[in-house]
Amino acid sequence: MTSFVIEPQKPGDAAAIEAMLDASFGIGRRVKTSYRLREREEAAEGLSFVARDAAGVLVGAISFWHLRIGGDRVAALLLGPLAVHPGHQNQGIGLALMKHGLAAARVLGHGLVILVGDAPYYARVGFQPVPEGQMMMPGPVDLRRLLALELKPGTLAHAQGLILPPHRVI
Ligand SMILES: CC(C)(COP(=O)(O)OP(=O)(O)OC[C@H]1O[C@@H](n2cnc3c(N)ncnc32)[C@H](O)[C@@H]1OP(=O)(O)O)[C@@H](O)C(=O)NCCC(=O)NCCS
């Protein structure tokens, strides 16, 4: 078992995180629609965390990004990427990173988080499928994998339409 701590990402972590994402997702990750939503954007302030093992080696990472949804431009966060180094998976690190990140997002006052991922895994922290037809992504995605978690009750119902980065308008 890996013993690990979770702490805020430091500027010097970027290269190790990129290498870990390539190892976990494969380099095809760069063509995904979620990746495109993050392109040329800054990660949400105070919401990028890493997991380090006892020797200080980076073994996992999570970040969140700002989004706007639909004509009302409802604010939301995009969760991801979340990755755990292949040598350290299935030891609770991914779940711990998610719980830590979501708790921090709550404290910062964010109301809604969405992501594209495997429902059975993300259901462990409360994510549920977005009702069919409620949201669209600006690129190819399996909409059955589009999941949402309300941090403030009632936010999901208002988030209807196209999901875009914060500075892009329809
Ligand atoms: C997905 C990922 C972040 C999970 O992190 P992790 O630290 O390995 O996971 P945890 O230890 O927190 O949770 C492990 C549990 O989740 C389950 N699980 C892991 N990935 C899953 C998935 N994609 N779908 C369903 N269940 C999954 C495991 O089977 C395990 O179940 P158990 O507790 O019943 O044994 C990590 O495996 C990873 O980086 N994978 C490669 C990148 C990737 O595929 N990401 C996309 C996820 S949609």
The CATH architecture is 3-Layer(aba) Sandwich
How many DSSP E strands? 9
The ligands found in this model are: coenzyme A
Instruction: Compute the number of helices.
Output: 5
Q: Mean pLDDT score, rounded?
A: 94
CATH class: Alpha Beta
If you compute it from the alpha carbons, what radius of gyration comes out, rounded to the nearest whole angstrom? Answer: 15 Å
How is the biggest beta sheet arranged? 9 strands, mixed
Poorly predicted residue ranges: none
CATH H level: which superfamily?
A: Gcn5-related N-acetyltransferase (GNAT)
| Helix percent band | 10-25%
The secondary-structure class comes to alpha+beta
Task: Write down the CATH topology.
Answer: Aminopeptidase
Which descriptor suits the 3D outline? Answer: globular
**DSSP strand content:** 25-35%
Helix and strand string, N-terminal first?
EHHEEEHEHEEEHE
How many distinct folded domains? 1
Distance between the termini: 48 Å
